Sequence to fold (311 residues):
Amino acid sequence: MSLRGGTIIIEETVSEEIHLIHRESEGYPLRLRELSGMPKSLYYKGKLPADDQPTAAIVGARMCSPYGRIQAFAYAKFLSENGVQVISGMAIGIDSEGHKGALEGKTPTFAVLGNGVDICYPASNRRLYQRILRCGGGILSEFPTGMRAKPGFFPARNRVISGLADLVLVVEAKEKSGSLITASFALEQGKAVYALPGAVNDALSRGCHKLIYDGAGIAYSPEILLAEWGIVPEESGPGLEKSNLGLETDLNLVYSCLDLRPKSVDNIISETGLPPGRAGSLLTELTLLGLARETGRQYYVRQQGAAAKFP
Fold:
């Protein structure tokens, strides 16, 4: 709450949908208020993140791999299902998948933009922009309405993303990446940083591996992120634990062999010891059941969330 010319300012209404809140005002996010170098004012649509709920930022490459896309969605969904607010920047790629997973988990998600909140950037994310607001989340920015995105705005945006979060999870990042800027801000702000490991020969994993080498936490499962808040989930993360779903022996053998990273038919045959023809027919059956998905010619992944169909 601030005092200006004898008038108490809580927040200002810029338009019917857009609000402006000042750092001295009641309602300005406490996580940002406690940090130096944060915006003096925030514009927002919808709601602001709750101060008393655990919050994680999920960031990563725009040009991400199918593996990164699946993981970002899965981790965000799992965290959201356990009451964690997910913050990201609504960019294409990992950011978008983080928001989408959070929306599936039903806890509101929040996007911090590098432009005015009245502008959906990128324009291709219009439906996501609307879903975030429709599902009780918010769109926020330090930049005034009408301000279009500029390259220099994104590093500034990143410090707000990390500032609003209790921890930052980086999912796929090259050695020189905006996501690493977010992680750097998080470390300066005293936030926990986690990175998702990947293949050592994958350029999209090099930034994550560098973070791990420098001391970031290894996000080998979403459960370890919940441990930051002392949350113990009732069930394992969707699609991240291999289980017997009551399938016949050979079918379950192939299903258990699948993972969130695309795996070739040759690898599946090698791991299961099944004849090529038998392995192929079982993969087809799993695909028809919704338990597997072909991501490319002769490459398969476990279908996300399929276990929920088979109690």
